[in-house]
């Protein structure tokens, strides 16, 4: 995994419709960032990501390693529904890992 993360989420299969680009950030709610919950295709350009069925990183989890996913059945979903996204981070690159001290 790299120190940089970037993913593109698309509303429709085949990379069509509205697009959301996420760079080096976790997104607990796509709605809060102006995107809907329908994600039917994705391109993981850098890093590894986990998409979650519900906001707040809850529900079914889908792993997006670097690559292209033309249709939601390519990440083994039973519907095109993702509502939150989180980066997979390695302590080699991120000294605090996935959690911050409070």
UniProtKB/TrEMBL annotation:
Family to which this protein belongs: Belongs to the beta/gamma-crystallin family.
GO terms classed as biological process: lens development in camera-type eye; visual perception
Name this polypeptide is given: Beta-crystallin B3
Gene: Crybb3
Native organism taxonomy: Eukaryota, Metazoa, Chordata, Craniata, Vertebrata
Domain of life of the native organism: Eukaryota
Entry-linked InterPro entries: Beta/Gamma-Crystallin, Beta/gamma_crystallin, G_crystallin-like
Record domain Beta/gamma crystallin 'Greek key': where: 47-89
Free-text function comment from the UniProt entry: Crystallins are the dominant structural components of the vertebrate eye lens.
Keywords assigned by UniProt, alphabetized: Eye lens protein, Repeat
Pfam families referenced in this protein's UniProt entry, alphabetically: Crystall (PF00030)
Assembly with partners or alone: Homo/heterodimer, or complexes of higher-order. The structure of beta-crystallin oligomers seems to be stabilized through interactions between the N-terminal arms.
Organism: Crypturellus soui
GO molecular function, a single term: structural constituent of eye lens
Signal peptide feature range: none
